[in-house]
Design goal:
By secondary structure, this protein is an alpha+beta fold. It has four helices and seven strands, in the order αββαββββαβα. The strands form two sheets. It has a five-stranded mixed beta sheet with strand order 2-1-5-3-4, covered by helices on one side. The chain has a two-stranded antiparallel ribbon with strand order 6-7.
């Protein structure tokens, strides 16, 4: 009977001694952030990123932007063979015990997006000779400039002139057919 009471007391102590929060180590800043147990991982990541940006602004750092966290994972330090446990945006943060540490995973520095020309993709897909593997990349298009607006302004009158000539031809087509038919 006394042993059962001791075991129950130990369980109660364990439940009371466990903190009701979870600690997440931020890889970018090295700071430990605390969150309530059961907090969504997506909320924790967004809060950590906001604090990183605020710290960067308040420090007036020469760096353009800090490395932001993409997600949180639980890792065992020193166990490279152990697969980390990744938390999705809606997963609840859980402490897995003493060897496990929750930490952020930082994203790679932002590189400008690159797009591939559609015609090159079509040639590669269709297997055209000479273009395989030579798909050229180009940076995303710049905002409309004066040159582009000028080209559009020049193209519109040309289109209207061609349209007017075609319309005039269609209006005179019956007369042309009568002339050809009567002449022969």
């Amino acid at each position: 009977m006394a042993e059962k009471q001791e075991q129950e007391a130990l369980k109660n102590l364990d439940n009371e001694s466990k903190p009701s929060f979870v600690e997440v180590v931020c890889k970018s800043s090295g700071k430990v952030r605390r969150f309530a147990a059961g907090t969504d991982a997506g909320f924790a990541v967004s809060l950590i990123n906001k604090k990183l940006l605020l710290d960067n602004i308040s420090a007036k750092s020469s760096r353009s932007s800090p490395q932001l966290a993409s997600h949180i994972e639980a890792v065992k330090p020193g166990h490279d063979s152990e697969e980390p446990i990744s938390f999705g945006p809606t997963a609840s943060l859980v402490n897995y015990g003493s060897p496990w540490i929750l930490q952020t995973v930082v994203t790679q520095p932002h590189k400008p997006k690159r797009t591939v020309e559609c015609s090159k993709i079509f040639h590669i897909y269709m297997g055209s000779s000479g273009t395989e593997g030579s798909c050229s990349e180009k940076k995303e298009s710049q905002p409309l400039g004066h040159l582009c607006i000028g080209k559009i302004a020049l193209a519109l009158p040309i289109v209207f002139v061609i349209w007017k000539i075609f319309l005039q031809f269609l209006q005179n087509l019956p007369l042309l057919l009568l002339y050809i038919h009567n002449g022969m």
